[in-house]
Every structure is written in structure tokens, then in C-alpha cells.
Write a structure and sequence with these properties.
Helix content: 10-25%
Mean pLDDT: 92
Radius of gyration: 22 Å
CATH architecture: 3-Layer(aba) Sandwich
CATH superfamily: Alkaline Phosphatase, subunit A
Largest sheet: 10 strands, mixed
Distance between the termini: 29 Å
Number of helices: 11
Low-confidence stretches: 1-31
CATH topology: Alkaline Phosphatase, subunit A
């Protein structure tokens, strides 16, 4: 990339306009915070929430989402937005670091119960960056990025000592405050606050609870623990936190990774049966309500004009929580796209991505820019005139030109997709190269033109071998350089990244 592109990404200098070129992956030359108090930033990340789960974005939707519909009318919707992965842990890593998770040792699936932290302690994270600019930072919700628990054993076989403080959790990765659950369907079944469990999980999870994975029957549970109370509790915590921070005079960052509509599908009493369709539809309605409570709190606190709200899903809608029932009732949770959560196909990683910023982002607008949740970090950096070091946010591109409607060319050169099995795909312009891999033998390459074939039904690899070769070479380059943006080459955490084969192990050996 040209030096001008590198300069424009790393230095946000005052300028009357941002010069954009067709190959640009750059952030604008100026931020927009100016000398005023920086904007508050609130990120709401729904869990397993499909691109078609918002009624305003899905003309065929049958589940009412009035609160998210209102957000759509007040902000900008990105129509070609993607999670960094088709499953949750890798996407959360990408959102908070601006880096593809497959650069770590985690090459497939997600973190298991009680596994150690995935984000390295010395890595710059979004909350760490914001703290440098005077932000108070909080995470309320599902963490699923690991911590160190005292006790014997490893992962789900561990026997934790819950009386000992948790080490290397959210408050060591940039958050001043944390409240939530590591994962709602993983133990321990109790709330965590900062570095300790709130209620000691002294009871076993009932063997006859149908909402819990069979491997976690009998796992540690707080007495009286109820799955249907998780989302309302987290929501009320977020509302209280917003009102508290609004009175402080200090800019704040609230990251609200929801636990819904991820399993266990447990709508609260107020929403059970409300949809008239199925529990998953009820839970979708409660997810909309929860987001609405946060939006209402921001408005009621009088801080809406100086608060950026971002709503997104962490991956596509799940297939195993009632997707077939939704389809039978005419609700297309994954829109017109092929696949669902976990897949390399569009339905696995296409997500809703909405940004509200009154006075800066046009209400009811949309953008066709290719966007990724990784891009939140570079976008926030651009707003704050922050110079990102070369060893941070290696796969993050600022979307600020699109938000301000100053974009005249593609902001992102290409986007890498990753699925639950560890398969890769790469998207550039209308083209998407999918690498269907096994653990041995040659992979199968499939090529799709998404402008002409959004359903990924017509493989064009045989007709365009030159495009297959070009895109595969670009993916190889991104792996080799340790980054997909302009800047000095970086090191991946492991040498065992193989885009042509499935990983032999979920955890690859670390670089030595």
C-alpha cells in the first residue's frame, strides 16, 4: 500500500476533506471529537441474532422489534456487515482487539468453560484505548473470553475454588467494571462481578434441566439460579450504570454483550408466549425490549446527543434453537442468505450493524460499505484522533468516512471469514472465495459473485481460475504479514495457520 494510505490510517491530522482512492483501507485524516468532551460509546452485541431478526431490515419479518426499528430510523444501517467469525468467542476477540481471532492459537470452535484468557495481557484493547482518553469503561453481560480460575484440573474438568478471586478477567483487559456471566450455558451458573462470583455456586445444576448441555449436568450453580432472570438482570444493571455515568461528567464506554437469543432459550415471564410462535420468537422480542431499555436510559439521562450507540449481532442466527419453526411462520432470521451460525456461508457471519450518533450520522441512512465488527476499534480511534500502534488493531479499518457520508470508494480492501470448524473464506468486492477443507488432501475452492448470486448457489471457480488464484494469494499475504491493513508486518501467535486444511487441533502450538 502507498505511504499516503499508511499515513491516513495512523495519523488523523486536521484536513478540510479526506482524499480517498479506490484501493484505500484508510481512516480519515481528521477525527470529529474536536475539543469537545468525547462522545460516550455504547455497544450492544446481541448473541446469535440474525441479519433478518430486525423487522425494519426484514420486510418479511413476523416478529415485532419496535425498539430496534426505532434505532434503524435514527441511525445508519450497514447492509454488508459481518462478524469476524461465525461463532461467538472469535467475534468478541475481534471486536475488542481489531484483530482476527485466527491469528491466536484458537483455530476452531470457541473457548470452553474455565479456559484461560484469549486476549494477551499486553495487547491494546478497545477499552484500554478509550481509557487513555479519559473514559470510564464497563462490560455488563457475556464475557466468553476466558480467565484464570483457581483449582485443580483444566477446562470443563476443572474443580474451581470459587472463594479465590478470578485472575486475568475483564478488569485486566481494560474494563473498570464487569458484571455478568462468562457464558450463560456454561458453568459456573452464577453472576460474576469484577474478579469474584457474586453468589457462591454451592448447588449442582439439576440433572433434569432440559436447557443445559448434557456435559454440564450437575455443574456448580448458585442456589435458586434461573436462566430467565439473566437478561432482565443484565438489562437493569446497564440502565442503572448509564444513569450513574451520566451524572459523573466523565465520558464512558459501556459494552453490553447480551446473553440472548443464545441458548438456553429462556424468555422471562413477561415474554413467555408473547409472540404466539415459539420460545425463540419470545426471546427475540425480549432481546428487542432489552435494547430498548438501554436506548430509553440514554435518552432519559439527557446524553443521547453525545452518545454513539452501536447495535450488532455476534454471528448468524442459530439453527438449533428453533430456526425451523421461525421459517415455518415466515420469519427469515438469516434473510436471503445461505447457512446460519457456525457456517462459512453468508448466513453464518452476515449481521445487523447499526450506528446512531445524533448530529453526525444521518437518521434513517444506510451504507453498502463492506464492514466488520473488527472495524469498531479503528473507527473509535479515528473519532478520538488516536494513533494506533502497528502492533494493535491489525485487521481494523475505520468506518468513519461512511458514517459521515464522506466515503467515495471502498474503505476495506478485503475481508476474511472464518467458521466454527476453522475453514476460511475471503471477500473482495463482489467476489467471495470459499475454501472447503479437510484435514488432509487438496481443498475445494468455490467462487461466488455476491452481486449476482447472493444465495451462493452458483460456483464460478471453474470459470474464473485467475480470480481464485488472486484471492487465495491475498489471503496468504494477510496470513504471512500478520495483518490485513497497511503497516509494519506483525507476528501471528502461532505458526500453524493453514488456510487450505482444517486445523488438526483446536489450540495450535504457540509461536516459539
Amino acid at each position: 500500500m502507498a505511504d499516503a494510505n499508511l499515513t491516513s490510517r495512523r495519523s488523523f491530522l486536521a484536513s478540510a476533506a479526506a482524499a480517498m482512492t479506490a484501493a484505500s483501507c484508510a481512516t480519515p485524516r481528521r477525527g470529529v471529537a474536536g475539543g469537545k468532551r468525547p462522545p460516550n460509546i455504547v455497544i450492544i452485541l446481541a448473541d446469535d441474532f440474525g441479519v433478518g431478526d430486525i423487522a425494519a431490515l426484514n420486510m418479511g419479518g413476523v416478529i415485532p422489534t419496535p425498539h430496534l426499528d426505532r434505532l434503524v430510523s435514527q441511525g445508519m444501517s450497514f447492509t454488508d456487515a459481518h462478524s469476524a467469525s461465525a461463532v461467538c468467542t472469535p467475534t468478541r476477540y475481534g471486536l475488542l482487539t481489531g484483530r482476527y481471532c485466527w491469528r491466536t492459537c484458537l483455530q476452531s470452535w470457541v473457548l470452553d468453560a474455565y479456559e484461560p484468557p484469549l486476549i494477551a495481557g499486553d495487547r491494546l484493547t478497545l477499552p484500554k484505548m478509550l481509557k487513555k482518553h479519559g473514559y470510564a469503561t464497563a462490560c455488563i453481560g457475556k464475557w466468553h473470553l476466558g480467565a484464570i480460575w483457581a483449582g485443580e484440573g483444566e477446562a470443563r474438568n476443572k474443580k474451581p475454588d470459587f472463594s479465590v478471586p478470578i485472575q486475568q478477567g475483564p478488569t485486566t483487559r481494560g474494563f473498570d467494571y464487569y458484571f455478568g456471566t462468562e457464558v450463560p450455558n456454561f458453568p459456573p451458573f452464577t453472576f460474576i462481578e469484577n474478579d469474584h462470583v457474586v453468589v457462591q455456586p454451592t448447588d449442582p445444576m439439576p440433572e433434569n434441566d432440559p436447557t443445559v448441555h448434557v456435559g454440564f449436568k450437575g455443574a456448580p450453580m448458585a442456589p435458586g439460579w434461573k436462566f430467565e432472570e439473566i437478561l432482565p438482570t443484565l438489562t437493569s444493571k446497564c440502565v442503572a450504570h448509564i444513569h450513574e455515568r451520566a451524572q459523573s461528567g466523565q465520558p464512558f464506554f459501556l459494552y453490553f454483550p447480551m446473553t440472548s437469543p443464545h441458548e438456553p432459550v429462556s424468555p422471562s415471564a413477561a415474554f413467555k408466549g408473547k409472540s404466539g410462535i415459539a420460545p425463540i420468537a419470545d426471546f427475540l422480542m425480549e432481546t428487542d425490549w432489552s435494547a430498548g431499555q438501554v436506548l430509553d436510559a440514554i435518552d432519559a439521562a439527557g446524553i443521547a446527543d453525545n452518545t454513539i450507540v452501536i447495535f450488532a449481532g455476534d454471528n448468524g442466527h442459530s439453527a438449533y434453537t428453533g430456526l425451523d419453526v421461525l421459517v415455518q411462520h415466515g420469519h427469515m432470521a438469516t434473510g436471503p442468505y445461505r447457512g446460519h451460525k457456525g457456517d462459512i456461508w453468508e448466513g453464518g457471519h452476515r449481521v445487523p450493524f447499526i450506528v446512531r450518533w445524533p448530529g453526525k450520522v444521518a437518521a434513517g441512512s444506510s451504507s453498502t460499505q463492506l464492514a466488520c465488527l473488527n472495524d469498531v476499534m479503528a473507527t473509535c480511534a479515528a473519532i478520538l484522533h488516536e494513533e494506533l500502534p502497528d502492533d494493535a488493531a491489525e485487521d481494523s479499518v475505520s468506518l468513519l468516512p461512511a458514517l459521515l457520508e464522506r466515503d467515495e470508494a471502498p474503505l476495506r480492501e478485503a475481508l476474511v471469514h472464518h467458521d466454527v470448524k476453522g475453514q476460511f473464506a475471503i471477500r473482495k468486492g463482489p467476489w467471495k472465495l470459499v475454501i472447503l477443507a479437510g484435514k488432509e488432501g487438496d481443498p475445494k475452492f468455490e467462487l461466488y459473485n455476491l452481486e449476482q448470486d447472493i444465495a451462493e448457489a452458483q460456483d464460478l471457480a471453474g470459470q474464473h481460475p485467475e480470480m481464485v488464484a488472486q484471492m487465495l494469494a491475498l489471503l496468504d499475504e494477510y496470513v504471512a504479514k500478520g495483518r490485513s491493513t497497511p503497516g509494519a508486518p506483525q507476528s501471528n501467535d502461532t505458526l500453524n495457520i493453514d488456510v487450505r486444511h482444517l486445523p488438526r487441533e483446536r489450540w495450535a502450538h504457540p509461536r516459539t
